[in-house]
Amino acid sequence: MSKFNKKKSGDLPAISTASLPDIVFMLLFFFMVATVMRQNTLMIENKLPVADQIEKLDKKDLVMYIYAGKPSSRYRASAGNQARIQLNDKFAAVEDVKAFILAERAGKREELIPFLTTALKVDGQTNMGLVGDIKKELREVQALKINYTTRTGSAMDNFN
Amino acid sequence: MARRLAPSVNAGSMADIAFLLLIFFLVSTTIETDSGISRKLPPLIDDPTTADIKKKNLFRVELNQLNELLVEGKPMKIGDLKSAAIAFLDNGGGSGNLSCDYCKGQRDTQSSDNPNKAIVSLINSRETNYATYIAVQNELVSAYTDLRNREAQRLYGISFVEMKKNLKNAKDKNETRTLRERIKKIQSMYPEKLSEAEPVNQY
């Protein structure tokens, strides 16, 4: 029977996987360096509008985030389907914005407070009424530097 | 007697550990940097004084609840807003004290006197879509940027946007100072005067 399982002379040697950890570590280090930790888990739909006259927000520690939009499908039963504000992983009312800004300010060094920027991450389908209310609250606590966070692209893409 | 060597540790699972860490970082981090349109809100004043603004120096941009754009009371496509805003800001119709020697506009006496006097007023309804509002903001900001680019190109041979970029990367102190002065000069030629009224309800 030996003629059936005769060993072939040209058998390929197994590929060495010894360098696999090195490759994976390289990827790992790339991701560790190039990314930042996710801050908030979004509970709302957040499809940002598009604009091209944009400035980058460089210093992440000087930015306060206010999210707004319709609650995502998981939360629709409890939060309704009207646009809501989200602050720090929680749904919030318009009145809570003031307290949020003051709390954020209290956690920063005093000399940095004038440089604090509020980033408004608002879903494109939100009514301006809600945004106007947020802006009014921000004006009341003198948080005047704002940034409408957008994606990069032509402004005309907002209507597709 | 031959000395016994310490047994080597099996490194076969190193790849698994590295994969685990990699997947953790992939899931828990984001790569995007935030960017957007930066604006400054006006401070809240208890008793607003009424400013005397000539009607011709005011560029009324309205967004109604149906996301329709009205410029000076007439409907307009958002694509045309930028050129209309530039025509208004760059008009320079004033004479004497108010004349504008760098404006390249029509010099229509019915439109704005001077870029320093020209005010863009943006009014939106509470039902206006945020995306539409951002598009309008974007067009208005880009009108200012275009004019500033033009003047910066004429005076310093470099666009305004480039100058701002250079300022961010500038290392030399002298360089920073001259750039800052130049940016201020251009900004004072076309100051961003964008007034936003409280949203109104229109039924």
Write structural notes for this entry:
The complex is a heterodimer of chains A (160) and B (203). Chain A has 160 residues and is of the alpha/beta class. Chain A has helices at 20-34, 76-79, 96-106, 128-140; strands at residues 36-37, 50-51, 55-56, 63-69, 84-87, 90-92, 117-122, 145-149, 151-152. Chain A contains 4 helices and 9 strands; from the N terminus they run αββββαββαβαββ. Chain A has a 5-stranded mixed sheet with strand order 6-5-4-7-8, with helices on one face. Chain A is elongated, with a radius of gyration of 25 Å. The termini of chain A are far apart. Helix content of chain B is 40%, strand content 14%. Chain B has helices at 14-28, 78-89, 130-156, 160-169, 173-189; strands spanning 29-30, 35-40, 58-63, 69-71, 74-75, 119-124, 194-196. Chain B has a 5-stranded mixed sheet, covered by helices on one side. The N and C termini of chain B lie far apart (101 Å). Chains A and B meet through α1, β1, β2, β3 and β7 of A and α1, β1, β2 and α3 of B.
Label the overall shape of chain B: elongated
- Helical stretch count of chain B? 5
Strand content of chain A: 15-25%
Written as H for each helix and E for each strand, in order along the chain, the element string of chain A is HEEEEHEEHEHEE
Tell me the overall shape of chain A.
elongated
- What is the beta-strand fraction of chain B? 5-15%
| Helix-and-strand structural type of chain B | alpha/beta
Order of helices and strands of chain B: HEEEEEHEHHHE
Number of strands of chain B: 7
Number of distinct beta strands of chain A: 9
User: How would a crystallographer describe the biggest sheet of chain B?
Assistant: 5 strands, mixed
Radius of gyration of chain B: 27 Å
Mean pLDDT of chain B: 84
**Kindly, what is the distance between the CA atoms of the first and last residues of chain B, rounded to a whole number of angstroms?**
101 Å
Cα distance, first to last residue of chain A? 72 Å
Biggest sheet strand order of chain B reads: 5-4-3-6-7
Which bin fits the share of residues in helices of chain A?
Answer: 25-40%
Q: How would you name the oligomeric state of the polypeptide chains in this document?
A: heterodimer
On the 0 to 100 scale, the average pLDDT of chain A is 86
- Name the largest protein-protein interface in this structure: A-B, 59 and 48 residues
- Work out the helix count of chain A: 4
